[in-house]
Amino acid sequence: MEKLRKVVNEIAYTRVHTNSPALHRSLVPFLTIASSLYGVALQIRRSLYRYSLLQKHRLPVPVISVGNLSWGGNGKTPMVEYISQFLVDSGLTPLILTRGYAGGDEVKMLERHLRGGPVKIGVGANRAATAALFLDKYGCVDSSSLRSFFDLHERAQVWTISEKIGCIILDDGMQHWSLSRDLEIVMLNGLNPWGNGHLMPHGPLREPLLALERADVAVVHHVDLITKQSLRDIENMIQGFKKSIPIFYSKMVPKYLFDVKNARSHVALEALRCASVLCVSAIGSADAFVKSIEMTGAHYVDRLDFSDHHLFEAEVTNSIAILHVLFPICFTAKKLFLLNQIGFHQYHNDKCRMLKL
To answer: Where, by residue number, does the polypeptide cross the bilayer (predicted)?
Structure first.
């Protein structure tokens, strides 16, 4: 299954398949049909909401949606964390609503990074129902508009954090149409934002690019890893759908390493300088992760990529553990808790580090 996922991912980011392997070419017709069916289902579902045949829920506090148009590698989860901390600094208690994926890696990463603060995290497919449970339990701040909400930041020094929920953040919310939102933020992977331009599963797009018209803000991620011309092309594409949309930029910056057995330990990035490193990841944009390690001055960098949200099994972790004798292994923080849950920590020695981004 993992091999098939990799093949589909390669197809999704390849525009011309003339020189592709036979397996790739043989799958394209089936993926094209599946994409067409997905597109039809998407149009029907969108129409049901547009004509109020499916209900949209309006919550009593401002709702910020952080989402994307393509699968993985867009910086969505770090943006959710950043906005959450901004809200806390502004005197508001945010509630993050997330569906949660296999293994709950993103949820556990958010919980670890936001531990000890007032941020609340609700997990569930029915986000309106999840929000209702938290609002009933904690109540909500009287905040009638986004403008007054952002004005709170200017008066943060006179505010005391309350348990009452002041704002809701929809994690991966762009395609979650059952909740009304006040601000729609779309995250884009600057390394390859559109793939081959097709809908899933033939391409990486969750919606047609026309969905950019709904966005209030666009954020281009990994902007430090692309050329100025590539960035201009992305900006032109975005503004071709919505001329007035503000565009911001973000990048993934390594901060330090820490021991897998001790998440609170700090190891300077200097430890990677002139070292041979094996990068192990199960994220949407492994290329960006590997490039960030290469930029630390490592002597040699190899990689072991798994599909986004991959659940590691014992035999896989055993094989990875054997590589410790040859490489200092650097994992993405996103997979720390998944690896620990299956007992991977028992294999780790002093060469194994996690990367804090």
So the answer is: 27-44
Q: Which residues contact 339 (CB under 8 A, 6 or more apart)?
A: 260, 312, 317, 331, 345
The residue with tokens 């799958």 is 27
From residue 134, give the alpha-carbon distance in Å to each of 56, 172, 292: 19, 19, 38
Tokens of 190: 């600057």
The predicted structure's pLDDT at residue 228: 96
Closest CA to 339 of 325, 352, 357: 352
Q: What are phi and psi of 345, to 5 degrees?
A: -60, -25
Distance from the first to the final alpha carbon of the chain: 29
Element (H, E) at 8: helix 2-12
Distance CA(264)–CA(71), nearest Å, equals 31
Q: Are 92 and 167 in contact (CB under 8 A)?
A: yes
- pTM recorded for the entire structure: 0.84
Looking at residue 41, what is its pLDDT?
97
Whether 23 has a pLDDT exceeding 70, the answer reads: yes
What distance in Å separates the CA atoms of residue 228 and residue 243, rounded to the nearest whole number?
Answer: 20
Alpha-carbon Rg for the chain in angstroms: 21
Other CB atoms within a 10 A radius of the CB of residue 232 amount to 10
